Amino acid sequence: GAGVSQSPRYKVAKRGQDVALRCDPISGHVSLFWYQQALGQGPEFLTYFQNEAQLDKSGLPSDRFFAERPEGSVSTLKIQRTQQEDSAVYLCASSPLAGARFGTDTQYFGPGTRLTVL
Amino acid sequence: SQKIEQNSEALNIQEGKTATLTCNYTNYSPAYLQWYRQDPGRGPVFLLLIRENEKEKRKERLKVTFDTTLKQSLFHITASQPADSATYLCAPSENTDKLIFGTGTRLQVFP
To answer: Cβ–Cβ of A100/B46 closer than 8 Å?
Structure first.
């Protein structure tokens, strides 16, 4: 595809339900990132993959959050036992190179999944 | 802890004028700084990247400065147009693989 896609675009969950959010990165992109964006705030880093390896998960807010990228392409962010404070937009981004440490990697963002927990 | 400040109030300017947005950071020394644009209901879109050893960078009507002494970046849009109306996010980041974003400043350009 032309860009990063995410599904579903909108998800409403009852408190306590489990949800799974999907990200399809740009084909061939090595790095994949998940961010959480609360209303009126900037995106906050959750986790980072290089191919199938999860290299940084320091931003995951609790052990209810789990992300995977088993084949190094599509990624899923799973939230167990959702709480109202989990309501936010979840953004996925990908970049072509292995590591942005040289500041040369642009991250390409998807449209996000808006999660509302009732 | 790392702190990034962008004007939380919206910036309203008239078409044709230059818009200037500010990004201040404290408690760390980013090696590079990126600016992104975000429209409602969409993900951020990359605009410009500037490194710590660069003072200024330009791209078409956009100009970014990076002052590591003041710990500040300024983002300028010259000859602004209504289509420039959006939220602009700065991301001063260390040499890591995750972006650290400010809260963003909403720009409104009116005819």
So the answer is: no
